Each structure stands twice: as structure tokens, then as C-alpha cells.
Fold each of these.
Amino acid sequence: MTNAKTGNYRWVVCALLFFATTINYIDRQVIGLLKPTLEKEFSWTESDYGNIVMVFASCYALGYIIFGNFIDKIGTKLGYTISIVVWSIAAMLHALVKSTFGFSVVRGLLGLGEAGNFPAAVKAVAEWFPKKERALATGIFNSGTSIGAVVAPILVPWILGVYGWQEAFLITGAIGFIWLIFWWFFYEIPSRHKKITPAEFDYIHSDNEPAPAENSKQIKWSRLLGIKQTWVFILGKVLTDPVWWFFLFWLPSYFATTFNLDLKKPSLHLAIVYTATTFGSIGGGYLSSYLIKRGWPVLKARKATLLVVAFTVLPIIGARYAPNIWAAVGIISLAAAAHQAWSANIFTIVSDIVPKKAVSSVVGIGGMAGSIASALFPLLVGTLLDSYKAAGNISAGYNILFIICGLAYFVAWFIVHFLTSRLKPVDL
């Protein structure tokens, strides 16, 4: 961080992004924690649940494209506001539905609204931070995904036990409107913010990347899809996003079926897994930022960090040999933490290689692609687990899925490495 004379208001902005991301993940995690209760209430099969997750992921993909372009046009402040209003209302509507189809509808609306979080947050980081601090700032706000996933396994079972599953959706969904008050009063772009000092403004733009003009012309998607820089992010998301969604939506069920974990009580095991991801997100952002400050070229520092991540995920292939739940928690915690380190750096690469005025659009395109992959993956997961459950050996189905998770990051790293071997920031 800079000294007090320069100013540190940008870290206030980072805190706002962190809390929004935390709320985002609390809201999407609720259904996974209520899955055993809702299965009994609505007679769901694994495939039914997989289809609901698929609807969420499909609408999340659509929302990425809508909000990615929308936020570049209307600005971060208003775009983020619209996003959180939509997803908070959708989260609360879960309490009113009476059928599996109803859950699919409100789940789709939730996905549509939640998709605005990352295009807005990554754009805000590009607006408020120099390149040498962006990975750390992204790692910090991205750790909100982990904190949300830690808070939810503690908060949701407590609400379920005291009130009921409907209240779990209502209470968690309402939190977004509290955040919105702080966002509206504390956020503005640096060129229009009254609390930023001239010294901090100069520091933010010290990497010779000019601030975008307020009336800068929108770049068409067709042009963005024609450059390798966009495909670096697309493929980096397509190959790894499904792994995180599997951790998010099926880990509670995995611990319940394999180790008889009672999901009606606050879960220390799940809290530990998602706490580890907080360290992964911030640590991954810190590592590449540290290497840059030591003189490494920006892309070399990002790719070196991503390679460390790929090696760190590998042990999850051996999760099948875990002798007890705590050994499984340790192995899965390592892999989940590594994913968040990957996420912090793959998001930051966007702001490294495309202009600020196109950041949300590229994040939207790549996020949509990753979400489509994540929408298809639950079909495989649901079908695979139903098949092995019918054979009385559901653990074998999870073992296959862990092997896929363990190899995905190496495949993604090799593709990212070769696409960026001679890549420079694009001039649009």
C-alpha cells in the first residue's frame, strides 16, 4: 500500500467489492445447504437438482453477456446497483415457490442478477488500481466468494433449525439491500470522486494506462472475439469454472452421503474448506503482485502463479483414499483454495491485456462461456451420481469427478501459456 499522503481510498472501494461478492455467494450457496430438506419437501432426484443448477448456470451465462456490455455502457455504479437489486429480489422469491419448476424459475432470475457481480467488480478494480496492485485487490474481493461460502454453512442451518427453509431464503436475500446503501454513498469513479487525493489519482494511473474518457466509444463483441486476448480468459474460465461450481453445489451432499455429515447443523467441515479458499484467493493475488514488484514481467508473474495453482490442485485425485472426513477436508480444502488463487489471477489478466473500457465486456464474454460449461457439467454430475447411487456405490461417482477436477487446471494452464507466449496488451 502507499503512504498516508498518497491516500488509500481505493481500498475502501475494494472493501465494498468484497462485501458484495460475499453476499453474492451466500445467496447462491443457500440451496446447496438446504438440498436434503428440499429433496424431501419436493421429492427431488439428483437429476432434478442437477437440472435446477443447470438453469441457474444457463441464466448466469446469459447474465454475464447482458451485464458485461451493459456495465461498460452505463458505468460501474449504476450497473452494480441494478445487478444486486435483481439478485436480492430473486433470492427472497425462493421462499414463495411451491414446486420444482418454481425453483427453476427463481433460480434462473437469481443467476441472471448475480452475473453482474464480477464484470462490475473487475471493472472497478481496473478503474481504481494500478496493474501492480490489481491481482491483490482482485484476490481480496474474490475472497468474498470464500467468506460467503463459510458464512452460509453456519448461518443457513441455524435459520433452518430456528425458523424454517423459507426464512433462510428471505433473511439471506435481504442482506443485499443493506450493502446497496453503502455502495450508493461511497462509490464513484476516481475522476469524479471527491474523497480521492490528486496524489492517489496519479498513483492509480502510474503504470501509464490513461483513465478512460467518460464518452469513450463502445467496442463491439465481434471485434473482441477476434483477438487472442479475449480467448485467454474464455478458455481459462471454461476449463475451471465447472470445478468451482461442483465444489459449491455438491460438496455438502458429498460429505453427507460419504461421511454421514448432518447438514441440519452448522458444519465446521464445510466452514474449514471455504475458509481455506479465502487464503487461496488473497495468497494467489499477493504472489503475482509480489513477483511484479520484484521486477517480473506482468504476464510471466501471472502465469507462474497459475502453474503453482495447477500443481496444488493435483492431490484431489487421491481424495478417494481419504481414511476419514478430516483427511478429505484437508485434500479438498487445498484444491478449493487453489481454485480461488487461479480465479484471482485469471480475472486480473483481463485488465492486464485489454483497455479499461472493454474490461467488463471481456469479463462478460468469458464469464458467459465459463457459465455455459458450468451449466453442462451438472448434467454429467447428476447423471453420474444417480447411476452410481442406483448401483449402491455413489462414492465411485465422486471419485471420477475428483479426477476431472485434478486435471482441469493443467489443461487450462497449457492453453493459456501458449496463447500468451508472445502476447502484448491489445490496442483497440
Note: The longest helix spans residues 131-162.
Amino acid sequence: MRTYLVTGGAGFIGSNYIHYMFKKYGDDIRIINVDKLTYAGNLENLRDVENRDNYTFVRADICDSEAINKIFDENDIDRVVHFAAESHVDRSIRNPEVFVKTNVLGTLVMLNAAKAAWELEDGTFKADKKFLHVSTDEVYGSLENEGEYFYETTPYDPHSPYSASKASSDMLVKAYMDTYKFPANITNCSNNYGPYQFPEKLIPLIINNALNGRKLPVYGDGKNVRDWLYVEDHAKGIDMVQEQGRLFETYNIGGHNEKQNIEIIHIILDTLNEMLPDEDPRKAHINEELITYVEDRKGHDRRYAIAPDKIKAEIGWYPETMFAEGIKKTIKWYFEHEDWMANVTSGDYQKYYEEMYRK
């Protein structure tokens, strides 16, 4: 049975990846989920799998080398999928130090632990051990012109403390691959959306605010463009890269769903009105009057767009979920999990787990 060590598995993308992997492989794999349970980590995301015999949760900080080395010492880890990261740009502007510590030092700790566990006396590595570092398209900076795209060869040009910290972590992984021939890959993805996304991110924020009649904040003129990737498509891409990709390579994973932020908001409003029954009282206040333009974010990149040509040509992955379908699936999930949203927005999920881990 192959054993996966997933960091940040209680977060948005990590938890969706775990669900995807169990759906695909069932009892043929074992997953160890390591998460610090910061504000973005929520074990409610994994309630459906927490009692599986082949799933283990370990509360630990990836910057804690003693804790991470212990996991490798006590388990024969075959795959590392490294999601754990501070990821919200606004928070990085307010507190860059946390991002540098988690994203850079934490990645270094993970690399060193895996290297120590997998390296043989002659400097080569045990067969069939692989490390996958999950990164972002934001490391490439901003695209100014229509028709331009990010490729794996695009020079890094990060503009926020968040993207700079992720670029630094990518460089560490690249250095380990080049220096030690460490068995790893890097993936750089576009903006994800789907179930379990923390509600300070654009799409769940707009869904939640619209349903509750609150203002819908839009940075600047609302015309910043992002490429949107349904999270399950991303999970599938990660698995395919780790099993079929060439070692030491970077693969960009993009959704072919470029949209302006203001377009996203209009689509969500239209979809909510389409999906809500006429008798639902919330329908009365879901309209464009909620849209409120606010001061633009500092260093706000204008446009991101990934060309996933390499992953499609070499591995056969492509985004299966177009935005019109994905946003309906996402909104339907939030309709069916309003208790989850209430627990997250109130902070009750954190209180529960803090109490549980004190016992």
C-alpha cells in the first residue's frame, strides 16, 4: 500500500485532494494528513474520511523539523504532496513574516526531512519516492496584454509578499532537484474554486455576502482577470503529474476560464437567482445594488492566465469543468452546507478543535 504524506490537507485544496484520492484509489492507498490548523485549516472538511482505517491526521507545524522528521521516521512515506502554505495576498501585505516563515522555511523542512528519509549512501534515492510541491501562477507576476500566457519558462516576477514567498519556495525545490537530483516536481496552478474554500476568498465571499444581503466588495475597477480552475480538476492534475510526469519538471495547471472579477460577481448573482426558488426571501436582495467598489489592493496584478499546453501534451490532463458548470456545482455545495459556512464565519470551528486538542 502506497503511503502519501499530505501537508495542509485540512485546507481548501488539500482537503479536496484527499477526497479525490480516496474516491479514486479507495483502500489501496494510505494518507497521513499534516496540518497546523491555522484559520484556513478545518477538519470539518474531512469529516467524511476521518474514520477510515487508511487515513491519519497529525496536528503539526511544517516548520517544526522534529515533528516532521518523526513522521518520516515512523512511516515509510512514498509520496509527499506539499500544499501547506499561507496563501491570502491581503494577509501577506499586513504580515509578510508569517508567509516567509511558513512558505519558505516550512518547505525547506519538508525537503530536508524527505531527503534524509529517502537518500541512500551513494547519494541516490530510494526507488519510487516522489515529492510534489504545489505552487501558484502568481509567481510569474502580471500579464498586461491580451493573448499572453504564463508558460513553465516564463521568468518569475512576483509582486506581493505572498507570491515572493511562494517563488522562494519554488526555487528551493528547484535547487534540491538540481543539486541532489531530489525526486520532485513543481506544479503552478491558477485560481481554484469549489467546495470547502475559506470565505475570505472571492467566490465564497460573494456567495455568502449575496445570500445575506451584504455588500459585495470589488477591488479597483473590477477588471482584474484571473484564470479559474475547478478544484477537483486540480486534484486530478496533481495526481497525474506525480504518477506520469517527468521527474524534475514543472507543470502549469490552468483552467482555460479567464474572467474579470466583476464578471465573476455578475455570474454568481445571476446563478443564485436562477437556482433559488421564487419563494426564498433571500432572492429579493440579490442584485447589482450590493456591488461596492473599494480601494484597490496594493501591488494588485492585472491579469493571470496559464497555458497548460505542457501538461496536456505530456500527461493528457486538461480542465474538464468549465466555469458555468463549476460555479453551479460550487453554489449548490454551499446551499447544502450552510452550517459549514456558519461555523467558519463565526470562528466556531477553531474553538471546537482548540478545545479538542487541549483534552
Note: The CA atoms of residues 185 and 294 lie 39 Å apart.
